[in-house]
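INTERNAL AUDIT FORM
Audit reference: QA-55
Scope: verify that the stored structure record matches its stored sequence.
Auditor: D.O.
Record contents follow.
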Amino acid sequence: MFKDKDSFKQEYLEKFTDVEGKTLDESTAWDQYHALVTLIKEKIGHHWAKTNNMYSQNKEKQVYYFSMEFLIGRLLSYYLINLDVRTHVEEGLQELGISLQSLIEQESDAGLGNGGLGRLAACFLDSMAFLGIPGHGNGIRYKYGLFQQKIVDGFQAEVPDNWLKNGYPWEIRKPDKSVIVKYKGSVKTEKIQGKWTFVHENYEPVLAVPYDIPIISYQNENNINNLRLWSAEPIVEEFDLASFNRGEFSKAVSYKAEVEAISYILYPEDSSQAGRELRLKQEYFFVAAGLAAIVRRHKKKNGSFQDFPRRIAVHINDTHPALCIPELMRILIDDEGISWEQAWNITVNTISFTNHTILPEALEKWPIDLFRYLLPRIYMIIEEIDRRHRVELSSKYPGNLEIINNTAVLRDGHVWMANLAVIGSYSVNGVAYLHTEILKDYVLHDFHTIFPYKFSNKTNGVSHRRFLLGANPHLSTLISEGIGDGWKKDAGELEKLLAFTEDSGYLAKLAEIKYQNKCRLSAYIEKTQGLKIDPSSVFDIQVKRIHAYKRQLLNIFKIMDLYNRLKDNPNIALSPHTFIFAGKAAPGYHYAKTIIKLINTVAQKVNSDQDVQDKIKVIFLENFNVSLAEIIYPSADISEQISTASREASGTGNMKFMLNGAVTLGTLDGANVEIRNAVGDDNIVIFGLSAEKVMEYYSRGGYKSWDEYHNYPRLKKIVDQMINGFFSEAGGEFRVIYDSLLRDNDEFFVLKDFCPYSEAFNKLNLLYASSEQWYKKSLINIAKAGVFSSDRTIKEYAADIWRIDK
């Protein structure tokens, strides 16, 4: 791309003048960033087009990955690595008096997700491009993302994440590829020449406009895939001039605002009827737009639909895109005149489904009345899917009303999206071995009885190039010094690091790099919070979405217990610890927000107490995103993965921490099971109830939280501190936590697992005292992390699910 720094400088200066229309001396950092991205995008433009043409000419099977979230983070820094030009660009900019880092910081994290679902989808796109798999992301271009999290007086406050305020130079708007999406109205049904036809009338149209973002492969600019995001816009720019002139300004622009709201924010609050309607609109919007574009392209290139499943794989990431099933049926039947039987055969053999949860509230269902009103034709198709499913099961399992009812799409006044996804797809996979077994044995047990051949496991993975090579350059250099560069393309080669586990010099270098990374995070904390952190302390970190089952509460209880013990005996043996939290709570999730308030209240008490300042500190980092994650993961000593066993599907943060040398403190939940299998019991610390025991408690009862509360004085003291004035400034804020544990019997077994958790933490504290032994464990975790590369995961999807030979 750029053969040296001088050729880069020449091209950059020419592009800057063309794009910005001013001299470099007059420019802002944003101008400089914008010009650089524009130059790179133009340089890779013909490779981007060439990739698509190559896929078409070779008639390769195309994978379309439908997801509500794609957390791609900042692209500039990562793409300079992938294109192998970072050094030339950095040196060239430096000679022009420009800091590359200052330009990197001009880029906002793309506001396209919330948590693990979005980070996983981004890693999958990265690996598909690297492996040369024709994979395209399909999602929504949220104008304001989820929200930007601020901490105000210890509480989470949500403000708009205006990530598009200056535009997004990486995207290309393609209005000529727009699609009309239809809502509401009625369906005219008539029989013409013996064949039923269906015409959607009096609908409300919305224009879906695509924006494409390049997904650039590592060191192969001929493999550039596509992330397509859809923006909701009015069909015509209707402006009610008469209303405006009467002073009714909001009425004048109400149509435009109502349409654009569809792609305003991720996961609008759905406690109201209007919020639920907007969520359902969103889910249909990107499904209808994406499938319309896929079918249009397929017809142009192939014509016939007989080979559609051999040319196209549609993958639905969780239940949000499950409407792909009835929408593809609608297109095939209504638009293409294909019979139901043929359309169903094409649909089922095209669509595959990943389940990401076992939590009942996350297995989506929609009220029938809302669904029928908003999507009348789609509801008709779902009715027929449900009817035929019931008829088939009645024949296969005569008299077994339980299995029929449990697997029905329509029941109890709702449309059950997980049931629709399983029935209408040829493949259903979980995302960790334990999670998949729970799906088969409990959550989707009846479906596994009916369709055992559909089920498989595909343990999640993460992009080791993004979260190690990009995020931890000093560690990456040390790894390459030891084993060469092969690991960058084949994460399995990390295992060669086991040769250095007894090399004290190498372990010392590993320790020094960890210290440098902790210094970087400490500087960030001081800059953002004004709090000085000791980088030589143990960095004990839990960063993830705030949710009761993820048990940030258990972690903060451990810290409260430490604080209480230190107040009673300042001389207890404890290495200095810095406890770090980050994560967002859903806007309507009051309990999770109360947990954030508790963490910040404990932090205020601990950090201001001179008696314990040299021993423990507590930090809550606001607005957790990919860029912040890239600072956090390399700095961690302890990776907190403490969800209630059986509740976490997989986790991917656990893999990123492991990849950067953190030691896991966790339950046998999600992918922790496979991490333990990889590193061995000596290099991970496991505690708590097993998944089997948790499931037994849920199904049969027998757990009494009051017994735990009364039997352990240290635990009772912590629980009582929720309500006894210990946090005087909080008033009765934490009563809801107290009640959840005792009145509501501690749904996620925080009290039951507290003592084993404390013992496990103490074990880690003792291990940390021996630096060389600790960093040996750290190195073993890095060496064994290769199996958790998303390259491995995508190879399995390609071979076993999408049936692509790569």
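Auditor finding: record pair retrieved intact. The mean pLDDT is 95.
Action required: none
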